[in-house]
Amino acid sequence: MKKFFLLFFIFLAFAWAEDPVIDVINKGVVLPKIIVKDTSNLNDANLKRSFYNILVNDLKVSSNFEVVSEGSENFNYTFEYDLARNGNTLSLNVRIKAGGEQKSSQNYTLNNIEQYPFLAHKSVKESVNFLALAPVEWMDHKILIARTNGPKQSQIIMADYTLTYQKVIISGGLNLFPKWANEEQSAFYYTAYDHEMPTLYRYDLKTNQASKILSSGGMVVASDVNKNGDKILITMAPQDQPDVYLYDLNSKNLTKMTNYSGIDVNANFIGEDESKVVFVSDRLGYPNIFMQNIGNTNAEQVVFHGKNNSAVSTYKDFLVYSSRESNQAGVFNIYLMSIKSDDIRQLSANGKNLFPRFSSDGGSIVFIKYLGAQSALGVIRVNANKTFYFPLKVGKIQSIDW
C-alpha cells in the first residue's frame, strides 16, 4: 500500500507542477439585454429565490446576454418563467419574448426536486439554442469530484457546475480519479484500493452498481475515454513505473503504449480521428506534454513553453494544460494551444490554477483555482474571454471531470 500512495502522490504532484466572481476581459463587446421575470406562485421561498438566482447566473455565464433588472426600460429579451412544485416533482414553463412578442414556450418536468439546478441549466441551454446564439451544451452536464474526507478516505460526488447540487455517489475507503465513461454521463470509472490492490471500477448510474475492470500493482488510473466509449487510456505501474496503456473494453486487450524509464501519466486522445495521444512525462527532467501516434512508441515534445506543464485535457486538435510560471513562486496558469499551430493562449492569471478540463463542446474549460486556504471552481468561456468562479465548499479536491 505504501507503494500505491507513493505513486499516487507522484501523480498528484504532476497535477500540482455563493455568487460567482466575474472577470470580464472583452469589456467593449455589446451584448443584448435580457430581463428575468418570475411569474411563479411558489410557497417554497428558498427554492423560488435559488432557482431565480441560478437562471440569472446561467444567462450571465452563457456570455450571450447582459442581464438587467426587471424595471429596466431598455432591453431586448424577456426570460419569463413559471415554476410549480407537486411533492417531489417540479414543472417549469419558460417563455422567451422579444419586443413584447412571444418567441417560444417550452415545458419541462423534473421528478427529483434535489436536481432543480439542472432544470434551470437545461432551460437556459435550450433557450440559447432557440435564439441561435452561441451554444452552451455543457451547461446541464454533471461534474465528478473526488474529495478527501479523512485519512485514506475519499468520496466521489456528482455536482452541477455551480456546485449548488452535490450528491455523494461513492464513499468508504479511498476512491480516486473519477472519469466519465461516455458522452451520456450514465457511467464513470474510478480507482479504489481493493484488498491490497489498486483497482479500476466502472460505476453505472442507472443501476447504481460498480463492476471491476482491472487491477494492477502500483497504481491504475483511467485518464481518458474515446468518443465511442470502448477504449480507455490508463496510467498503470505494475512494476512501480508509471506508463500509459490502452485498454479495449470489447476485446479486453491491454496494450502498453509507453516504455520510458521515468514517469508517463495522464494520457488523452487527441485529433479528430483520435489516432494520437498526448500525455505528461518527465523525460526532459521536468513535467511536459508529449504526443505519439497510437501503435507507435516514438514520442515528440508538444509544448515548448514553461518548465512544469501538467494536467492536460484535449478537445479535437486542441489541448489545455496548467503550467508553473517561472520567477513566480507557486503560480500556475492555464494555457490553450492546438497541435496544428505554434500559437499559445494564456487563459488565466495569478494564483494557482490547476486541473483544467474541456467541456463537451470545447467552448468552455473548468478548473480549480486556489487562493490560499480557499478554492473555487473556475469556468472559462473561451471565445467570450470571460471567467466565472464558484466557491468550493466540498472539502479538499483531489481531481475533477466534466
From TrEMBL:
SUPFAM superfamilies: Tricorn protease N-terminal domain (SSF69304). Transmembrane segments: none annotated. Residues 1-17 form the signal peptide. The lineage of its organism: Bacteria, Pseudomonadati, Campylobacterota, Epsilonproteobacteria, Campylobacterales. It comes from the Bacteria. The keyword Signal applies. PANTHER family: PROTEIN TOLB, PROTEIN TOLB HOMOLOG. InterPro entries: 6-blade_b-propeller_TolB-like (IPR011042). The gene is tolB. This is Tol-Pal system protein TolB. Keywords: Signal.
